[in-house]
Every structure is written in C-alpha cells, then in structure tokens.
Amino acid sequence: MLGRFFKKPEDDHGGRVPPGQTLTSRFPVLTYGPVPRYAREDVSVRVFGLAEEQTFSWQDLQGMPQTTLTYDIHCVTHWSKLDTTWTGVSVPELMTRVHLKPGATHVMIHSVGGYTTNLALSDFVRDLNLLAHEFGNTPGALAPLETEHGGPMRLVVPHLYFWKSAKWLSGLEFISADAPGFWERNGYHMRGDPFKDERYSD
C-alpha cells in the first residue's frame, strides 16, 4: 500500500530509479532478528580467510581518512531513497591495509548477530562503498548512525540492493569462490543489481 511517505515516481529521475521501485522520504527499518546494541568503542572488524588475519578497532577505523558521499539507495522490498549522505572509511582505503592471499575472489560479510551476505571483490572494492558510521538526508545534517540502521557501523554498497549493505559490520572473510549468505540461502539473488531487477534467485 502506498502511504504518505511513499510515491510512485512520475519518471525514473534521469535513470536513478530502478524498475519496480517506489520513492520514499523515510528510511524504513527492515531487520531480520533482534537489533544488537553496543558502544562505538566496542566496534571491531575482523579480517580473515584468504587474507592475513587482523582486526580493526573503532579507534583504528577513526584514524583512517574519512569520506563523505551522497548517493541513492534501493531496497529489494521496492523502496528507493534518493540523495542519502554517509560518512565513513571507503573500502578502497581500508583495503590498502588488507593483505590478500592468492585465490581470493569474493568476500563474505559478517555482522554482529550472525547475519552474512556475499560480494564479489569487484563489487566490494569500489570507490562509493563505505564502512559508514554517520548518516544524513543532507550533507549538513550528518549524525551518528542510529542503531536500527546499522550503527555504530555498517557497510554501504549503493550499487546493489540494500540487503548487501550489511548492518553492524563485524567481519570480512575473503574466500576463493562465491557462496550464499543469509538471504541468498533463502531465495534472494546472489548479486542483487537493482537496475537489472535481480531480486530473487532463478
């Protein structure tokens, strides 16, 4: 049902709205399972698998260059939100500190609470992808990322459906072949490109 905060786009906004999507001015909260609550200082991102094992603390991540980006996001449940602004560590910046082993082609993203989702390295190491800790509807209105939206820190992968932007990021497991994460095991597409309408597996 379309409500006050959702509307069908009259056009695709210059190609920005994927097929089957509805624009929203809200930021809907969609989470499988309980919402974990923990302090920023308890954030840690473990790197393992086909990479030299290491763990980045909140302090480590805050000591890296921070990037602020504005882009659109798209949820598999048919909503799109335009012009969202995020601040965090870019994935390419993080990867300058990660030492991959031969054979790594994909990464399994791990979250506090056990959620996982998969990405090809080519989808993971992109300039627009962030380990984000601040969010705002405009660049001048940034605030710490709310817990319900993945705070203190989440991954943001704006070119894919938003289930790939794992909340409460806790680990990056580099692997030698594609493998399904939580929603992929439960019928969602292995990649999830919104502009190709890749919502569900064949």
What can you see in these coordinates?
The structure is a single chain. The chain is mainly β and 202 residues long. The protein has one domain: Oxidoreductase, molybdopterin-binding domain (Sulfite Oxidase, Chain A, domain 2, Alpha-Beta Complex). 9% of the residues lie in helices and 32% in strands. The protein contains four helices and twelve strands, in the order ββββαββαββαββββα. It has helices spanning 58-62, 91-95, 121-124, 182-185, and strands at residues 6-7, 22-24, 44-49, 54-57, 67-74, 79-90, 106-111, 116-120, 130-136, 143-144, 154-156, 169-175. The strands form two sheets. Strands 1, 2, 5, 6, 9, 10 and 11 form a seven-stranded mixed beta sheet that branches. Strands 4-3-12-7-8 form a five-stranded mixed beta sheet. The longest helix is centred in the N-terminal third of the chain and has 5 residues, at 58-62. It is globular. Residues 1-5 have low confidence and may be disordered.
Question: Could you give the topology of this structure?
Answer:
Elements: E1 6-7, E2 22-24, E3 44-49, E4 54-57, H1 58-62, E5 67-74, E6 79-90, H2 91-95, E7 106-111, E8 116-120, H3 121-124, E9 130-136, E10 143-144, E11 154-156, E12 169-175, H4 182-185
Parallel strand pairs: 2-6, 3-12
Antiparallel strand pairs: 1-2, 3-4, 5-6, 6-9, 7-8, 7-12, 9-10, 9-11
Tags for this model:
9% helix, Sulfite Oxidase, Chain A, domain 2, seven-stranded mixed sheet, disordered N terminus, mainly beta, five-stranded mixed sheet, 202 residues
